[in-house]
């Protein structure tokens, strides 16, 4: 089955439910202006509740290094996800696996970012929306993603009723969802998470 991350988890019970319905990873937002922001202590509680083989991804937006180090000291995240304008040297300085987010609006040449972020675990494509760094619930115009030797993760406005089409068009390595499985920003809807994950069967 295609891999999936459920992002913007703020509560232990949502993380446990995400794992139960088959999410491979949960995303925790360390960006204080987000309605989905979590504290380090809440993040640690969430990580401690995760079952084996479900990984944790910490999201940052142009954070200063000391902030990221403080989060990592208190909370052993598996992967960092950079949503801002972080250059490659910044992303690699923490010595952790990382994902770089590219904000796109349609077909773009991805060779340059793939080269620049050569040591990223993957690149995550999200919709470019003015005034949003992520979690906008907006989709970009999907296209067949090229094989550039780097896992490409599709995000932006995915929901149970469009994720199959998105996968058929784009053929990503994995999908990432946040607002499409929520009741309200930061509060996940467990039924919607289950319906989303059910759509991934067979891919
Ligand atoms: O969720 C936020 O509020 C957020 C704020 C700042 C940077 C990133 C943020 N979220 C990223 C995500 O949750 C997802 O990885 C991605 O943007 C897809 O979100 P959605 O379109 O809501 O499915």
TrEMBL record:
Pfam families, alphabetically? Answer: PRAI
Reaction(s) catalysed (UniProt annotation): N-(5-phospho-beta-D-ribosyl)anthranilate = 1-(2-carboxyphenylamino)-1-deoxy-D-ribulose 5-phosphate
Write out the GO MF terms: phosphoribosylanthranilate isomerase activity
Please name the Gene3D superfamilies in this protein's record. Answer: Aldolase class I (3.20.20.70)
Q: Does the keyword Membrane apply?
A: no
What EC number(s) does this enzyme carry?
A: 5.3.1.24
* Keyword Amino-acid biosynthesis in record: yes
Alphabetized, the UniProt keywords read:
Amino-acid biosynthesis, Aromatic amino acid biosynthesis, Isomerase, Tryptophan biosynthesis
Q: Which InterPro entries match?
A: Aldolase_TIM (IPR013785), PRAI_dom (IPR001240), RibuloseP-bd_barrel (IPR011060), TrpF_fam (IPR044643)
Root EC class: isomerase
Q: Can you tell me which family this protein belongs to?
A: Belongs to the TrpF family.
NCBIfam families given for it?
PRK01222.1-4
Q: What is this protein called?
A: N-(5'-phosphoribosyl)anthranilate isomerase
Source organism per entry reads Acidithiobacillus concretivorus
Name of the coding gene? trpF
């Amino acid at each position: 089955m295609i891999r999936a991350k459920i992002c913007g988890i703020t509560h232990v019970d949502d993380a446990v439910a995400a794992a139960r319905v088959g999410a491979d990873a949960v995303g925790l937002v360390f960006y204080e202006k987000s309605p989905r922001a979590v504290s380090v202590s809440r993040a640690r509680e969430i990580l401690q509740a995760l079952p084996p083989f479900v990984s944790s991804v910490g999201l940052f937006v142009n954070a200063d290094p000391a902030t990221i180090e403080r989060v990592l000291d208190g909370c052993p995240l598996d992967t960092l996800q950079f949503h801002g304008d972080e250059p490659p040297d910044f992303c690699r300085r923490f010595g952790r696996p990382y994902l770089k987010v590219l904000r796109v609006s349609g077909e773009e040449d991805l060779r340059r970012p793939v080269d620049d972020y050569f040591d990223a675990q993957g690149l995550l494509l999200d919709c470019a929306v003015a005034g949003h760094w992520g979690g906008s619930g907006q989709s970009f115009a999907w296209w067949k993603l090229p094989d550039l030797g780097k896992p490409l993760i599709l995000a932006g406005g995915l929901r149970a009723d469009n994720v199959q089409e998105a996968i058929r068009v784009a053929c990503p390595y994995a999908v990432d969802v946040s607002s499409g499985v929520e009741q309200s920003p930061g509060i996940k809807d467990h039924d919607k998470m289950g319906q989303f994950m059910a759509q991934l069967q067979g891919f």
